[in-house]
Design a protein that fits this description.
Blueprint (H helix, E strand, L loop, with lengths): L2 E5 L5 E6 L2 H4 L5 H14 L59 H17 L3 E4 L9 H10 L5 E5 L4 H7 L6 E4 L5 H6 L2 E4 L1 H11 L2
Helix pairs in contact: 2-3, 4-5
């Protein structure tokens, strides 16, 4: 059964925290994680980019000069793609970038990302965030005490004190456990959980 260090908000180790082997000790499926991350980034694209072809650019209806005996190359329109101000050849058009990922693959990738953080000793559990009010200094001291760089903090309930305390720290991100995703897990160098967050993850993803 995998374990991580349990710490308090002062950074002091309180012992080991046992995790579910089904969620935090799952096999690492690199292909599944790659597929989910690619799909997540693709689904964020709006796909509203658009360029005009020679038939959509205004003007250019009149032949710029006669076909022969001018000493210049023949042209039929000033909106030809080889003219400045002309249309664009094979340019981007509005499209849907959405990619579908099966629930089983998404679940497998998420468990793989969580297990990877535990295997690489990049995950810790904090018993509670002892913040009476938002304090960037207190959060920085806590992160430094556990040597957490570019941390992802997963909380079980929305706490404005934690969110505001971490908002000015470069690389730090606070997410509700319901918004967990593979990209943010892999993008973070450190993962910080609460006992309630761990129980929620084990409850949802252990099946």
């Amino acid at each position: 059964m995998p374990t991580v260090k349990l710490v308090n908000f002062l950074g002091e180790e309180l012992g080991d925290f046992q995790l579910s082997d089904n969620v935090f000790g799952a096999p690492i499926h690199v292909v599944a994680m790659h597929q989910v991350v690619v799909a997540q980034l693709a689904n964020q694209r709006q796909g509203t980019h658009s360029t005009k072809t020679r038939g959509e650019v205004s003007g250019g209806g009149r032949k710029p000069w006669r076909q022969k005996h001018t000493g210049r190359a023949r042209h039929g329109s000033t909106r030809s793609p080889i003219w400045v101000g002309g249309g664009v050849v094979h340019g981007p058009k509005p499209r849907d970038y959405h990619q579908k990922v099966n629930k089983k693959v998404r679940k497998m990738a998420l468990k793989s990302a969580l297990s990877l953080k535990v295997q690489e000793a990049q995950a810790k559990v904090v018993d509670s965030f002892q913040l009476e009010s938002p304090s960037t200094k207190s959060m920085v001291n806590f992160l430094n005490s556990i040597k957490a760089k570019k941390p992802l903090i997963l909380v079980h309930e929305t706490d404005a004190r934690v969110i505001r305390s971490a908002s000015n720290i470069q690389g730090a991100k606070v997410l509700h456990v319901d918004s967990i995703n593979v990209y943010d897990l892999l993008n973070a160098e450190s993962l910080i959980l609460t006992p309630e967050t761990v129980r929620k993850l084990e409850e949802v993803y252990s099946l």
